[in-house]
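Consider this one:
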Amino acid sequence: MKNIFKLMALFAFLFCLTSCDDDEPVIPTLEVTPANLNGTWELSEWNGAPLAEGTYCYITFNRKEQTFEMYQKFDSMYARYITGNFSIEVDPYLGSIISGDYDFGNGDWNNKYIVTDLLESGSMIWTAKDDENDVNKYIRCDKVPEEIIAEAKIDEDEN
């Protein structure tokens, strides 16, 4: 009888240990490829905070051409329309890294970015390769709003 109680206590203890698993559910991520980036993305957070009022950044990736179109009012008081090419490389230690260069001989992007948490629900995180404190969260959107395209076009015509 004592052995039965010991076995029951042992099974109860083992059951408690297995039911207290601290693993959080794993959210599946997409592979970082031009096809999975294709479309329009809006910068929704920079370094964990929403963008200041009146600032924005939209980027549209074209998977076939590996080009991008960017509408931004982020580092200037004027809206800007910027185009260029992008590429993705896979580092065995860091993961997928996106980089790009601007059209018209304007040089490379300031940073290369490690892309993580590319979710099917439509968000991704970019962390600057050389500055882990520079973190950008993008969310997928249908298109660049017409008023932003018009603002960038007006500012482009004036310059």
